[in-house]
Amino acid sequence: LHEICHLDDDIFEMMCHPAFVDPYLYNNSSYNIQRIKELDILCSQEAKEMIKDLDLIHYRQIKKA
Asked: pTM score, two decimals?
């Protein structure tokens, strides 16, 4: 997150698929353990501090050039 928040770009996209992994997801998705890591990062105090000053929008709010 630190690297993302210090980019010189005006707009950047952050996409993730956080989740609590249950047995079904664990057995049926190859992207299972990474979801737990993403959830931990997004719920961390560090992440909350880093994004508090950002102007967050939904992707549908981005105007086409």
From this structure: 0.65
